[in-house]
């Protein structure tokens, strides 16, 4: 099935490229921020169990307990860091974007691995709405990695400012955060990307419609270049939602 985008770009909707990580209740689920794995279990009322295989229900009827920030691919809005409530469901109103995928090796700075402005600026050209960053090395265990207390790579403040000034509205990364794991709550990259100067009193030019998607996985066989991104979320009135970013070759 072919679709025409902006009257001149053609994509094949029958060939989606899924860069999300599925959420499971197994030890294979990735975890960040010091929490346990998700819980997916049937509802129980007395001796009734919401599970067909148990022989006491005609339907499977599960409760799911998870944290969008710590349990897999998710998309967040500036409400993640503000005093006032902002919802991803209200912030993200368009779902198809012109996107570029680039691969970056974070730079060793002291004990940290940092994505710098220089590493991003050399890979960008043209006008894009969404930037997808795959970091190397790109081991498949990113899909099940336990990130807590591992000091994963992160973005410098200058890199986040450059992305914002490049008019990129949507940033997608294969890391648990754009900021350093233990940063004393500074959140320099988050604030720079969303142009949030004060988390208590939001400035008028803060980027209400910009989003950050974390904990994606981009397989090695997916080539760097230009794509159409379909950024799918669940309709949660929350600062973040589990998400399913899909790429289409142009």
Name of the CATH architecture: 3-Layer(bba) Sandwich
Count of alpha/pi helices: 4
Number of domains: 1
Largest sheet: 7 strands, mixed, barrel
The total beta strand count reads: 17
Q: Mean pLDDT score, rounded?
A: 96
Fourth-level CATH superfamily: Putative cyclase
Order of helices and strands: EEEEEEEEHEEEHEEHEHEEE
Provide an overview of this structure:
With 250 residues, this protein is mostly beta strands. The protein has one domain (2-23, 68-249): Glucose Oxidase, domain 1 (3-Layer(bba) Sandwich), CATH 3.50.30. It contains 4 helices and 17 strands. The chain has helices at residues 88-91, 117-121, 157-165, 188-194, and strands at 2-5, 9-12, 17-18, 39-42, 44-45, 48-49, 62-65, 74-76, 96-104, 107-109, 112-115, 130-135, 154-155, 170-173, 211-214, 225-233, 240-249. The strands form 5 sheets. Strands 8-15-14-12-9-16-17 form a 7-stranded mixed β-barrel. It has a 3-stranded mixed sheet with strand order 10-11-13. A hairpin with a 2-residue loop joins strand 10 (107-109) and strand 11. The longest helix is centred in the middle third of the chain and has 9 residues, at 157-165. The protein is globular. One of its GO terms (biological process) is L-tryptophan catabolic process to kynurenine.
């Amino acid at each position: 099935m072919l679709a025409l985008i902006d009257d001149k770009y053609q994509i094949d909707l029958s060939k989606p490229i899924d860069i999300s990580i599925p959420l499971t209740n197994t030890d294979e689920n990735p975890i960040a921020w010091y929490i346990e794995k998700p819980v997916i279990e049937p509802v129980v009322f007395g001796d009734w169990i919401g599970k067909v295989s148990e022989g006491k229900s005609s339907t499977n009827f599960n409760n799911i307990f998870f944290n969008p920030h710590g349990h897999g691919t998710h998309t967040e809005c500036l409400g993640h860091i503000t005093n006032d409530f902002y919802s991803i469901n209200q912030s993200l109103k368009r779902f198809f974007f012109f996107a570029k995928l680039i691969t970056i090796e974070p730079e060793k700075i002291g004990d940290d691995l940092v994505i710098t402005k220089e590493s991003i600026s050399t890979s960008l050209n043209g006008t894009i709405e969404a930037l997808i960053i795959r970091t190397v090395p790109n081991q498949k265990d990113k899909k099940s990695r336990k990130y807590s207390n591992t000091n994963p790579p992160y973005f410098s403040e200058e890199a986040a400012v450059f992305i914002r000034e490049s008019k990129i509205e949507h940033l997608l990364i294969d890391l648990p955060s754009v900021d350093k794991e233990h940063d004393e709550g500074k959140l320099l990259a988050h604030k720079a990307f969303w142009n949030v100067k004060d988390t208590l009193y939001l400035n008028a030019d803060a980027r209400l419609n910009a989003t950050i998607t974390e904990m994606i996985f981009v397989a090695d066989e997916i080539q760097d270049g230009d794509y159409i991104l379909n950024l799918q979320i669940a309709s949660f009135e929350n600062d973040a939602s589990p998400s399913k970013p899909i790429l289409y070759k142009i």
